[in-house]
Amino acid sequence: QDVPVKNSKEKPISPDLFGIFFEDINYAADGGLYAEMVQNRSFEYNPSDRKGWHSLTAWKYLAEDFAYGTLTVETSEPLNENNPHYTVLNIEDEGQGKGGLGLANSGFDGMVLKEGENYNFSVWSRLFSESAVPLRVELRDKEGKVYGHTTWTAESTDWKKYEARIAVTQSTDSAYLAVVAKGKGKIALDMVSLFPENTFKGRANGLRADLARVIADMRPAFVRFPGGCLVHGDGLENMYRWKNTIGPVEERVPQKNIWGYHQTAGLGYFEYFQFCEDIGAKPLPVLAAAVSCQNSGGTWRIGSIGQKAMPLEDMQDYIRDVLDLIEYANGPVTSTWGAKRAEAGHPQPFNLEYIGIGNEDKITPGFEERFKMIHDAIREKHPEIIVVGTSGPSHSGEDYEKGWEFAKRENVALVDEHYYEKPEWFWNNRERYDKYDRTVPADIYLGEFAAHDTDRKNTLRSALAEAAYMTHLERNGDIVRFSSYAPLFGRVGHTQWNPNLIYFTGDKVLRTVNYYVQQLFSVNRGDIYDPGLVSPSGRGKDKKAFVVSGVKDSETGDIIIKIVNGEEGELGADINLSGLDISKAEAECILLTGNPVAENTFEAPETVVPETRSLRVNETFTYPAPAHSLSVIRIKL
Ligand code: AHR
User: Fold this and answer.
1) Is the C-beta atom of 49 inside 6 A of ligand 1?
2) Could you confirm whether the keyword Methyltransferase appears in this record (predicted)?
3) Could you tell me the distance, in angstroms and rounded to a whole number, from the CA of residue 440 to the centre of ligand 1?
4) CA atoms in the 13 A half-sphere facing the CB of 469
């Protein structure tokens, strides 16, 4: 790294040290960041997604004013083969007051509508009867109050897309979408969709603006996506295949999400790359190492652990897919996959630098063989791409050693480690990377970590343990290239995993205390670690839960000091600016403190939030760090 390190004590810090890990777990994508408001829009839910789910999950039959007829789900001559199910309304009588026959979608826990905003409705329909069928689309609440509407007449006997903008006049958080046929006839409907017009950056097929903003506010250096376990799936059938997630949304291949729900692939690789670009983060896609979730058993058993793996005869096609992803992201518009990126509206490359291969895979002979094939192919065809491998499912012990041995043998550039541990573990292990062998060429990506407090609550105590650990990531920023908290998002009422960094409902976003720690480190990163800038003072020297870190940002010239006090009482940190010109220095201190077991909640979202105050600095001075606090001091020289 080309960082102006001045003396032997200073160490360069990776510019990409703090980023995020986005996985579609806890409804993070469908029902979350992906702004689609209709749930099961293409009638593809089925019992393999979740027991009891079917084509009409989240839908209801509507027969108004004693209208009658049938609502069926059919599959012959569908919109396309990836989207086999659609619904058919056969309206025999539209009812006494022409109320009509139709269907209603409840969205994800009710639809949130905002007064004065527009919503983009679209649907594919196909007429089976001779006469055209007029339809009315309404956004209603349970009492039948209408918040916005549009009408159209289905006339085409071929599948045709209809689009309209619906203006909403009042706010509500519990609307549903009603699509009602107002005349006799028979029509098919598919891909019934509703998006807020106001998506993040106004993108079509875009992202929920509030959730995207909360990520953007962290200014992450990179985004790892789309998983986690989601990547390898729990069988080859739902291994994440990026090619299934690009192109027109109605042609994408939906599948069972390993976390027990349905994945539309509406938020796919194009949208991920675009989002990274929109927030100035580097994309870090992770692809399966052609094996599925550890020990999940199944058709193709390899090694002794019953891991499902891709048959070797399919590996060349799989490797082709991996190489094609690089072409999709970076290739010229004249290349096959670069042309597809251009078709989607992005002729410029996405500047992909990194690819992850594998996630927490058991290091078995079957894994090793497949990983090596993929890794060798990338290195041969794209030596410019940096591959991130995995240390396996454990972060210590024999399996972990095996993972590292393999990575070293194969010259893997970066190794992904994961750990979820108690807060004390983070305090006790904050020298982990100090001890790493610097002669090994492989660097570290701490791809998933979180301190799990009692009942898996997002307490200040857990956040401070993470902060303490992150000071040690800064100190080891020469070999730890990336790090990301996990998981990122949890939709209230739909979590498979706690704690998460950010919780949300249909219209509310909760930043946990842990979020503020990640954000404070990310927006206050430096590129040089300097151990001479700060040290514990007096009693602080002997305290277990007290750490400090001093970094420089060579672009702005700012000095940034972080102090984490996990002890019961105030402790001092000696700050040493001698040798620096502080005649014009201005400093501010951002403080995150409170009761160690306090959490932010939807009822009290500001229980523990950062507070900024100005600070007087001298060449040397002692900063009093309050009990249970993170202090981030930025000194502008
Ligand atoms: O972050 C949640 C899960 O934890 C990830 O999917 C997986 O990689 C890990 O086990």
Assistant:
1) no
2) no
3) 26
4) 30
Report which secondary-structure segment, H or E, holds 379. Answer: helix 365-381
- What predicted TM-score, i.e. pTM, was given to this entire model? 0.96
Distance CA 618, CA 621 (A): 6
221 touches 282 (CB < 8 A): yes
Ligand 1 pocket mutation, candidates 361, 483, 497, 501, criterion most atoms within 8 A of CB: 497
Report the pLDDT value the prediction gives residue 7, as an integer from 0 to 100. Answer: 60
Q: Which residues are catalytic?
A: 360
DSSP label at residue 335? S
Instruction: Output 538-541 pairs: Cβ under 8 A, ≥24 positions apart.
Output: 538/571, 538/572, 539/571, 539/572, 540/565, 540/571, 540/572, 540/573, 540/625
Q: Note the pLDDT of residue 530.
A: 96
The CATH number of 59-196 is: 2.60.120.260
Residue 499: cis peptide before it, omega within 30 degrees of 0? yes
Q: Which two tokens stand for residue 526?
A: 């430096």
List the beta strands (DSSP E) in 306-400: 307-308, 354-357, 386-390
**For ligand 1, atom 2, which residue shows the shortest CA distance?**
487
What's the rounded Cα separation, in Å, for the pair 375 and 442? 14
d(CA 249, CA 228): 23
Q: What pLDDT shows up at residue 94?
A: 87
What are residue 179's phi and psi, to 5 degrees? -120, 110
- Intervals of the chain under pLDDT 70: 1-8, 295-307
- Write the secondary structure of 482-549 as one string of H (helix), E (strand) and C (coil): EEEECCCEEECCCCCCCCCCEEECCCCEEECHHHHHHHHHHHCCCCEECCCCEEECHHHHHCCCEEEE
Token pair recorded at residue 248: 């027109």
Please work out whether the CB of residue 227 comes within 6 Å of at least one atom of ligand 1: yes
**For residue 377, what is the enclosing H or E element?**
helix 365-381
Radius of gyration of the chain (CA): 27
Q: Is the CB of 497 under 6 A from ligand 1?
A: yes
Contact present, 276 and 282 (Cβ < 8 Å): yes
Residue nearest (by alpha carbon) to ligand 1 atom 4? 228
Position 302 scores a pLDDT of 52
In the chain, where the domains are located:
11-33+199-528, 59-196, 530-636
Report the C-alpha gap between 605 and 594 in whole angstroms: 13
ipTM of the complex: 0.99
Topology at the third CATH level for domain 530-636 = Immunoglobulin-like (2.60.40)
The CA-based angle 625-521-457, given to 5 degrees, is 80
Cα–Cα distance between 611 and 613 in angstroms, integer? 7
Q: Is 359 in the pocket of ligand 1 (CB under 6 A)?
A: yes
Superfamily name with CATH number, domain 11-33+199-528: Glycosidases (3.20.20.80)
pLDDT, residue 175, reads: 98
DSSP codes of every residue in 232-252: H-SSGGGS--GGGGSSSGGGS
